[in-house]
Amino acid sequence: MAPSLLSADFADLKGELDSLQACGADLLHLDIMDGHFVPNLTFGPFICEAIRRLTPLPLDAHLMMTHPHRYLEAFAKAGVDGITIHVEATCDVGAALDQIGALGCQRGLSLRPATDLGEMVPFLDRVDLVLVMSVPPGFGGQSFDEGAPERIAWLKQRRAETGGRWLISVDGGINDVTGAACRQAGADILVSGSWLMKAKDRAARTALLKG
Ligand code: DX5
Ligand code: ZN
After folding, report:
1. Ligand 1, closest atom to CA 134?
2. How many angstroms does the Cα of residue 131 sit away from the middle of ligand 2?
3. Most buried of 12, 13, 17, 193, CB within 10 angstroms?
4. What is the pTM of this model?
5. What does the pLDDT read at residue 204?
6. Are 82 and 59 in contact (CB under 8 A)?
7. Which ranges constitute the DSSP H helices of 83-201?
8. Ligand 1 pocket, Cβ-based, cut-off 6 angstroms
């Protein structure tokens, strides 16, 4: 279970990180938006480095960026454990994945709900994680794309057929109901933003997501 910090109270970052660790989060999902690949802007390596010093939880940076390759080294230096780029990015995606691995980070690849899964196929032999977007990237609090479980099931089958070892993660509109559907379809990791972060009892919601 991976909370997205997008809905966290950044005025109390330490308190939020402690709360997420206490409620049973397994890793933290950091949404990095560049104001170009998506209309929204969030934060970069500087804040990731501060988060790194505030929590022992593994960090996965989800780069919603047009030019992620320019910043991979900076995110690795900030201490994140995984870096996920988008297959729609304007860069040599294979080379960027190789660079993420060479920097000692887990290699993640994501795609928008509207992008054909076939676009991922050339890269599946060099990723550690596939992140299925179940909302159009850019904002928290959007509603879940009902097509996501089918895409997760397709990836699970593809992984079994090819002997892949990558994890399947899903991001966007995850709650107890949509999370259960994704788990059933084969998701290994559920990313949850607003539904989890706005809850009074985050531990109870974390337990629900873990099933
Ligand atoms: C969307 C982000 C997601 C999002 C999840 O662009 O990648 O991580 O913040 O938030 P919820 O769970 O609110 O959809
Ligand atoms: Zn995300």
Report:
1. 14
2. 8
3. 193
4. 0.98
5. 97
6. yes
7. 93-102, 148-162, 176-185, 194-197
8. 4, 6-7, 29, 31, 62, 135, 137-142, 171-174, 191-195
Instruction: Give catalytic status of residue 171 as yes or no.
Output: yes
Residue 29 CA to ligand 2 centre (angstroms)? 6
Could you identify the atom of ligand 1 that is nearest to the CA of residue 38?
Answer: 6
CA triple 98-104-105, angle to 5 deg: 80
The confidence score (pLDDT) of residue 3 equals: 98
Place 95 in a pLDDT band, splitting at 50, 70 and 90: very high
CB atoms closer than 10 angstroms to residue 113: 17
59 backbone dihedrals φ, ψ, rounded to 5°: -120, 130
Nearest-10 Cα torsion for 136, 137, 138, 141: 70
* Average pLDDT score over residue span 115-123: 98
Q: Which ligand is nearest to the CA of 205?
A: 1
The rounded mean pLDDT for the chain is: 98
Q: Is 60 a catalytic residue?
A: no
**Closest ligand to 42 CA?**
1
Which of 191, 192, 208 is the pocket-test mutation for ligand 1 (most atoms within 8 Å of CB)?
Answer: 191
Q: What is the pLDDT of residues 124-158, one digit of tens each?
A: 999 999 999 999 999 999 999 999 999 999 999 99
- C-alpha to C-alpha distances, 64 to 40, 43, 89, 171, 192, nearest whole angstrom: 10, 11, 8, 12, 17
